[in-house]
Amino acid sequence: MSDWKAMEREAERFRRDIRALPVTAPSDPLALRRRLETRYNFAAPHSLCDLTEDVSALLRDHTVHVTHPCYFGLFNPSVRDAGIVADFLAALYNPQLAAWSHAPAACEIERLTLRHLGSLIGFDTETLSASFTTGGAEANLCAVLAALAHYGSEAGYDGVAALPARPAIYVSGESHHSFVKIARMTGLGTDALRTVATTPQYTMDPEDLAARILSDRTEGWKPLLIVGTAGTTSSGAVDPLVALADIAGEADLWFHVDAAWAGAVVLSPRLRPVLAGIGRADSVTWDAHKWLSVPMGAGMFFCRHPRAVRHAFAASTSYMPDAVLGGAEDPYTTSVQWSRRAIGLKVFMALAELGDSGYAELIEHQAAMGDLLRAKLRSAGWLVVNQEILPVICFTHDRIRCGQRSTHDLLQTLYARGRAWISDVVLGGNERVLRACITSYHTTPADIDVLLAELNYALQ
After folding, report:
1. What DSSP character marks residue 324?
2. pLDDT by residue (tens digit) across 246-263?
3. Which of 230, 286, 303, 359 is the most buried (most CB within 10 A)?
4. Are 269 and 171 members of one domain?
5. What domain count does the chain have?
6. Residue 3: what pLDDT?
7. What are phi and psi of 168, to 5 degrees?
8. Is 178 helix (H, G, I), strand (E, B) or coil?
9. Which of the 8 DSSP states describes residue 318?
10. Is 97 exposed, middle or buried (0-12, 13-18, 19+ CB in 10 A)?
11. CATH code of the domain containing 272
12. With contact defined as beta carbons under 8 Å apart, do 427 and 64 qualify?
């Protein structure tokens, strides 16, 4: 069997068998290391065909199958065939996207895709600066660096220590913790993260935000950036983006929306109102490898201030090709990365295959499965504790609240049986609850029933 036939057979087998596989199976790290070290000391070569078979078996047996329809965990989706084909083509042709002149087709494919998605957010595509990133953490870093360049250009030359006042970044306790790393990487320090109170719905409290900004200014801080989250990791909550945009405008702060997961709802006419106000952001993070169902990783950064982006990332050196005439920009001058693969090809191909309306159908199907899970949980006596219309469902049970069962024990029972996967989370810094997210466009009502049966079994 040829190497290519082995790959084709594995792809067909995995797609055919995915529902029959356990979502997760126990793995012993020591045993797994021994297996690898015994077979591969890198002294002798292996045929690619045999390698393909063996690595496929390793991944099949020792992976939490996030593409499984009964995986209800983090924002890891089933992937579209178009995305898989695109990643194959990106590996085959291996375009280098640092310089436009080396990869004209790939660069223009990305530009077209980003301009279209940016227009759905509500940005002016004539002034839009956008790039593909490794993920949401990099996109969020881009936002902070662009904000620093916009409000404190001297930081690019003399460092943040030269700023006349310490910049402050406003997050909530439900914001993504990538901002902790970003505060360290940028030299701002984690004390620059000002944690704003949340409402009972786990969203940022605008009144507390306004009070914190005023108080920080009085104490000598330079309020820099407000982070509004559209689809928090814990509960899927969407911050009040309109109110946050108003405060940012009145206080002259950069307004960034971290829509890594929920940004996809701009494709859905029915769900789009959930993100009212996102178009007023100065910058937006959106991960295509979450709700757009393409392979890892495909983050996106959108910004309405191209001058700030250029100031944050521009670089020149003799070993790079000369800039291209005609308005084309070299990606290395407008992004964190230098050498870069064609990340956006899979987003382009999946979007071109489905179209906006096809994506809207997939997104709305997953939202409908979330509604169904909420209803079935309530009917079975579970307590749903968040009130989102997006498909992240946080729930508990009286037996958990009174201490008869714990979320940890319940999850261990689920994982041991391998028929479904969910997680738990602490909401609002208080209660630990169970969390289920619809991540697969293949999930059906029958899969919801599997999860409910497993939960009821584990609760006994």
Report:
1. P
2. 999 999 999 999 999 999
3. 286
4. yes
5. 2
6. 74
7. -120, 135
8. helix
9. T
10. buried
11. 3.40.640.10
12. no
pLDDT at 75: 94
- What residue ranges in 244-354 does DSSP mark as E strands? 254-258, 283-287, 299-303
- pLDDT tens by residue, 155-181: 667 778 778 889 999 999 999 999 999
Residue with token string 């169904």: 372
Residue 320 is predicted with a pLDDT of: 79
| Number of neighbouring beta carbons within 10 Å of residue 157 | 7
φ and ψ at residue 444, rounded to 5 degrees? -120, 170
Statement to judge: residues 201 and 298 lie in one domain? yes
Which residues of the chain are modeled with pLDDT < 50?
Answer: 1
**Does residue 238 contact residue 231 with C-beta atoms inside 8 Å?**
yes
Determine if the peptide bond prior to 297 is cis (ω within 30°).
yes
Close Cβ partners of 136 (under 8 Å, ≥ 6 residues apart): 176, 178, 258, 260, 285, 287, 299
Name residue 174's amino acid.
E
Distance CA 261, CA 287 (A): 6
- Name every residue whose Cβ is closer than 8 Å to that of residue 392 and which is 6 or more positions away in sequence: 231, 234, 235, 236, 370, 386, 435, 436, 437
Q: 98 and 65 in one domain?
A: no
- Closest listed residue to residue 61, CA positions, set 97, 21, 15: 21
Contact yes or no for 131/301 (Cβ under 8 A):
yes
